[in-house]
Design goal:
- There is one protein chain.
- This protein is mainly beta.
- It has 5 helices and 19 strands.
- It is globular.
- The two termini are about 15 Å apart.
Length: about 475
């Protein structure tokens, strides 16, 4: 399952700690304490030469872009600052285990009295590294194993193979990543993958075999992504009791889609932010580049965070999405939105609200439009146990969630659609404890009181546990 609210499966993100490379071995790009600037800023200098020692398979032309600013330095403070910035850029490439900077006076016949030489001493990563990881998302866990070939062609390319085995999802994929020299944020990624997922709330099993090509680039303060994806999808029944709508959609389909994503993220943390905001917009158009799935899909996410008194944080978030079929063919259960559970509308069971099949099975079929909003107050634990240490990973959590999910008759017009989304709103409130697992994931243990429950909704009245990366 690709997102918290959408059925479509995505390939694994290609990341994980390096086997044989400990975190302490990789230099943290932190600025050393600067000497007294009033002494050093007055001395004009000229950077005559910049050396890079320790290169093996890395091409020198790639590094020229990263270190060129060092030559623009006019005094010692400038040299130190620009050398540090260049060191950060070299580490960001993900091809060096260690980067050290040595600044010395120039020597030789052409040396100037105020000339300096800057030397970057680098240690390259191994040609092949292993990776292991545990991932938490969509209220499920998985174990990830993989192999990485960093700097495979000498210009910061990366070839990655990953295998993931989880409680509801198993996948493997091959990824090739290549950045543009001198502009690491502008890069391309090629993926080949297979993902098999089980969705018990819909009595559905889905297997995706796909390829994708993705271009990422910055524009002003935004991160932009353009992507083409071709997926062969196989849907099947997870249980003999699967309802007729699930059986009717079982079989093979081919989706070819173009998508665009834009992200503005000023938060200080993606897991449990204290300040800043997030705006995420995604559009997907399927059917114009082949395949038998035709639709236009739009969804967005907004989040605002504000630090208040007594180290408390007020957070507000809003999600929304719309799925429009193109042509006479109805939308697929694999493309619709899903809502409910400990990562979205708390107090309801996982993806167990909205349109549902008739009969005993009561499978959830997803919706073509949804919205969800949340208001949260995070405070330190009472009496601040473990303050300044382990206790700071915990927060007390008060929340109010609301939302709705439905199918739309597109002949009725926008006003009728909005009215339908405003009717019979599901909402819940409660309190609990949040545990932040570094910048990887977060865990929640909440006491929930669901309200506005509609016929067919499955609720979790009382204690509910949640684990994941993306929460409403």
């Amino acid at each position: 399952m690709g997102t918290v609210h959408a059925r479509s499966l995505d390939p694994l993100p290609m990341h994980g700690p390096e086997l044989g490379v400990q975190a302490d071995d990789i230099d943290a790009p932190e600025m050393d304490q600067e000497p007294k600037q009033e002494v050093l800023e007055n001395k004009d200098v000229v950077v005559q030469q910049v050396h890079i020692d320790g290169l093996g398979r890395t091409k020198e032309d790639l590094l020229t872009y990263e270190i060129s600013d060092v030559f623009q330095a006019k005094n010692l403070i400038d040299v130190m600052r620009k050398s540090h910035e260049a060191r950060q850029k070299l580490l960001r490439l993900g091809i060096f285990r260690k980067v050290e900077v040595v600044i010395d006076t120039s020597r030789g016949e052409d040396a100037l009295p105020n000339g300096l030489d800057v030397t970057f001493e680098v240690t390259e990563l191994r040609r092949m590294t292993g990776s292991y990881n545990t991932m938490v998302g969509n209220n499920e866990g998985s174990m990830v194993l993989g192999l990485k070939l960093p700097n495979v062609l000498g210009r910061a390319e990366k070839l990655t193979f990953q295998f993931s085995y989880g409680t509801k999802e198993t996948s493997y994929g091959l990824s090739f990543f290549k950045p543009q020299p001198g502009n690491f944020e502008r890069n391309i990624t090629l993926n080949v993958y297979k993902v098999t997922g089980q969705f018990p709330w819909s009595s559905l099993r889905e297997t995706d075999r796909g390829i994708s090509a993705e271009l990422s680039f910055p524009v002003w303060k935004t991160s932009q992504t353009l992507k083409w994806e071709g997926v062969w999808r196989e849907l099947g029944c997870l249980a003999r009791t699967a309802s007729f709508p699930i059986r009717e959609e079982s079989g093979h389909s081919l989706k070819s889609s173009l998508s665009h994503g834009m992200v503005i993220d000023t938060r200080n943390s993606s897991i449990l932010p204290r300040k800043g905001g997030l705006l995420k917009i995604h559009q997907e158009l399927a059917g114009y580049t082949g395949g038998d799935a035709s639709f236009l899909k739009e969804d967005f996410e907004i989040q605002l965070n504000k630090t208040l008194f007594w180290d408390s944080v007020l957070s507000a978030s809003l999600w929304g999405g719309l799925l429009l079929p193109i042509g006479d063919k109805p939308t697929s259960i694999a493309d619709r939105f899903y809502l409910g559970g400990p990562t979205s509308i708390r107090g309801f069971s996982m993806y167990s609200m909205g349109p549902q099949s008739e009969g005993m099975a009561g499978d959830y079929l997803g919706g073509e439009a949804y919205w969800a909003g949340g208001l949260h107050l995070y405070t330190p634990l009472p009496f601040r146990p473990g303050m300044g240490g382990f206790g700071d990973l915990f927060r007390t959590h008060f929340f109010l969630n609301a939302g709705n999910l439905c199918n739309l008759n597109y002949g009725e017009g926008p006003q009728a659609h909005l009215k339908k989304l405003a009717e019979c709103i599901r909402w819940s409130y409660g309190l609990g404890i949040v545990l932040r697992l570094g910048n990887i994931a977060r865990l929640e243990l909440n006491y929930c009181i669901p309200m506005g429950v509609q016929s067919g909704d499955r609720i979790c009245d009382g204690v509910q546990f949640g684990a994941g990366i993306r929460f409403l």
